[in-house]
# Entry
Amino acid sequence: MTRRLPVLVTAAVAALAMAACAAPGSGGSDSDATDGGTIRIGVIGASDTQWDVFTQKAEEEGIDVEIVNFTDYQIPNQALADGELELNQFQHLQFLANFNLKTGNDLQPIGATAVYPLNLYSTEYDDVADIPDGAQIAVPNEATNLARALLNLQQAGLITLRDGGTSFSAAADVIADESRVTVTPVDAAQTAAALTSGSVAAAIINNDFVGKAGLTDDDIVYADDPSGDAAKPYINVFAARAEDSGNETYLKLVEIWHDPEVEAAATEDSGGLAIFKNNEAGELQDILADIQANAPTS
# Structure
């Protein structure tokens, strides 16, 4: 996930404005979907091949979908909460929990998509052991992915986190005297640029930017493990407002996303990194509730 200046793609602004004018007050009720209304889904990276395949598959099922593109990960959840979208699909459960806790909203996951590894890349070093003491490591600065990145760096033996670290750890939790490297949080979209420009020795890079930067598995110096229980908070999901979490058409769209042709496109878009998940909505909601219940209170 990325965090950029709050700039919404111009086309998305126009689309949302037109939708608001055409259907005031209709922000995602069950009748919108069942009466043949357009279902607006907020995403990051609408140009990805998966969305073309997905909308075609939805159309074959009689469901009209509009993919609304955003460039700032902070906006699609608020747009959903405000009724400007019916669904969004861009985030993992930890990110969703953070939004709910911060804003008091109650967005809920209705279906899983995939887990994407958050790997450490370097174009200069072949192994974690080769990274010199005092080197700078770029990490995404968005809170939830920052915490995940810090935990990965700790597992790699590069840093030590206060109290062992949690999924809510921040840069201030890095114990400098016990760490081999310096952590440099930057906009997630800039992690790859920082690496390829030689500004840092290594970088933890979101899958959204790996392929675009020309990086491959050969550049991974420490691989995240997205398959275990520890990865459950990082399952990516379709999210809806709580009152729409049982909407049958929305749940059908989750099924459509797992069509083999859509998954094949998502695999290509992710550079082969996507590990698909089919957790039921109830399980995802339980994981979300557990994350929120265990969040620090201050």
